Each structure stands twice: as structure tokens, then as C-alpha cells.
Recover the amino acids of this structure.
């Protein structure tokens, strides 16, 4: 049996990117029960990819109740719907076998991963204050992508003078804007820039200087994305809601590493249930951005643990 539920988690504060603001995270929770055992998973439908709660629910509802993980990979496209079902099936299989998912997947025992903490788009003054408040975190991620980004960058650096920074433009720049900003990003000490140009309009990245690593986010979904990234990107951002689950995520990770890409593992704004399988994917990644639960005012029972070592692998009571 496959059950689909809507859950809403309040955010600790308004979260803003270049595409808009939100005060809550709306997610779909999928539970798959067989033989008295239930596995579960979570996804965040994303309007940027044409997904809604309703459309993703319909995709999942159309699946046979006895769907297998292998059959799922061709039954649904990469995206949020397949992610929730795939992760629920991994959890179900682990509970049935009395093992952890990392063992079933042939992985090493997972360890904590240092994660970025995201500062949402705001006025320079507010972003400086937010940076100062979080200056002790090991890595800050700044949401940008507007015509007035330099004052925000300078403000964050002033608020957190010694903290490593990565920036996410969310497709908000042109090639000219990025070329102008790049030297300043280097000067400020930015370690990585995510998706500076719109997906599908990023060919100029192969022609202009890339003085710091450029990461493909919206341009990279699954293994089929990789051929179009060559010469344009140095790092790929793996998100389970894009790959369509942990199964494809692990395969994309292997292939991306084999082709010489650096790895970032990111997330949509969701609960600890959504982050749990991503922690396994993030093992050894150059950059981890799994701070979704840190942005929430409420979370799942048995939430992920975050401390100075980073985000810890899930306990079996949560997932996997």
C-alpha cells in the first residue's frame, strides 16, 4: 500500500531567494507498507521544474502498490515524485532486512558532514547582521541573483570576516554580470558560485574565465545531464528531488566523479526526513548543503543531529 500525505513545517523566519519568499515548507510524505512493515520518504515539489503538490501526488498515485525500486526508475522521470517513493522503498527494504541503507547500498558507515548554513536574500544591513550572528558556522551560503548583489556580498563578509562563503545566484545573473562580479567574488574569498546563469542559457560559461569553481544546480538533474555540462562547470550539485531519489543519486555521484567533477550535495527546504538519505549521498562531497532542518521552526520526530561536527547520519528511528 502506498499512502501520500501533505505536511507543512513552519520556517524559523522568512526565507527569500531571487524567485520569491516563503514562510513554510510544504512537503509530500510517502509511506509504503508491506507485510506489516512501513518505509517512508519525503519530497518537495518545486515549481521551477513544473511540479506542484497536486501533480506529484498524481504521479505517485498512478504507481502499482507493489512497485520495486528497479521498476520505479523507468516508471517515473527524475523528480520529486520518484524521490519520495525511492527513499521510502530504501527505508522499507532496510527495515525488512534488519540492516541500514548504507549497508544495503554497499557503502561505508556514514560520518557527520560539515554543512553550509544559508542566509536568505535580504537588505545588506540585515544580511550583515545575519552573517555576524552565524559567523561561527563552518560555511555560509548566500542567496543572491539580483542587480544589487555587491553590497550584499560586502555586507556578509563584513559580518563574518573569517567564515568560508559560497554563493548561489539561482540563475539570476547574465554572463556580463557574472564576469564583472567574479573578480570581486575571488577578492572576498568566495569558494564556489552556484548556477550563475539560467539553465539552458549557460553556454557562455565555456567561453568566459572561471576564476573560481562554478557549480551546476538547475543545469544538473541526473546522469543524462552530464554531457551538456562539459567545459562549463567544475562542480555538480546533487539534490535528491532532482535526481529522483537515492538510487539515481548514487549513480550520478559515481559517474560525475569518474568524469572529474567536484561534488556538492544540496537540498530543498524540507524536514530531517528529506535530508536523511542525502547525508549518505554527501559522504566525501567537497561541499554539503543540507541545512533544511536548521531553517525550520519544527521538524520530524527523531530529527537529524547538528553540531560542530556537522550533520550526523540518521538514526534508524527516523530513516534507513
Amino acid at each position: 500500500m502506498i499512502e501520500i500525505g501533505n505536511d507543512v513545517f513552519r520556517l524559523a523566519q522568512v526565507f527569500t531567494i531571487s524567485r520569491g519568499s516563503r514562510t513554510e515548507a510544504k512537503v509530500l510524505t510517502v509511506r509504503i507498507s508491506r507485510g506489516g512493515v512501513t518505509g517512508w520518504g519525503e519530497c518537495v515539489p518545486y515549481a521551477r521544474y513544473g511540479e506542484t503538490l497536486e501533480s506529484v501526488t498524481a504521479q505517485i498515485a498512478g504507481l502499482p502498490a507493489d512497485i520495486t525500486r528497479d521498476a520505479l526508475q523507468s516508471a517515473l522521470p527524475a523528480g520529486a515524485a520518484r524521490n519520495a517513493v525511492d527513499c521510502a522503498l530504501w527505508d522499507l527494504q532496510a527495515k525488512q532486512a534488519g540492516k541500514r541503507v548504507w549497508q544495503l547500498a554497499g557503502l561505508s558507515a556514514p560520518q557527520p558532514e560539515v554543512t553550509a548554513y544559508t542566509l536568505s536574500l535580504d537588505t545588506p544591513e540585515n544580511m550583515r547582521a545575519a552573517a555576524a550572528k552565524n559567523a561561527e558556522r563552518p560555511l555560509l551560503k548566500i542567496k543572491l541573483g539580483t542587480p544589487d548583489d555587491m553590497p550584499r556580498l560586502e555586507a556578509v563578509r563584513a559580518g563574518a570576516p573569517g567564515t568560508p562563503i559560497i554563493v548561489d545566484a539561482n540563475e539570476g545573473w547574465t554572463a556580463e554580470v557574472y564576469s564583472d562580479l567574479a573578480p570581486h567574488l575571488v577578492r572576498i574569498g568566495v569558494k564556489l558560485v552556484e548556477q550563475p546563469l539560467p539553465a539552458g542559457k549557460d553556454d557562455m560559461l565555456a567561453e568566459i574565465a572561471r576564476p573560481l569553481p562554478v557549480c551546476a544546480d538547475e543545469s544538473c538533474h541526473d546522469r543524462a545531464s552530464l554531457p551538456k555540462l562539459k567545459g562549463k562547470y567544475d562542480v555538480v550539485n546533487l539534490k535528491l528531488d532532482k535526481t529522483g531519489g537515492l538510487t539515481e543519486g548514487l549513480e550520478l555521484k559515481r559517474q560525475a566523479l569518474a568524469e572529474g567533477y567536484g561534488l556538492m550535495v544540496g537540498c530543498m527546504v524540507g524536514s530531517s526526513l528529506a535530508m536523511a538519505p542525502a547525508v549518505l549521498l554527501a559522504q566525501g562531497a567537497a561541499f554539503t548543503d543540507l541545512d533544511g532542518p536548521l531553517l525550520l521552526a519544527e521538524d520530524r520526530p527523531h530529527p537529524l543531529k547538528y553540531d560542530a561536527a556537522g550533520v550526523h547520519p540518521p538514526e534508524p528511528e527516523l530513516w534507513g
The chain has a mean pLDDT of 95.
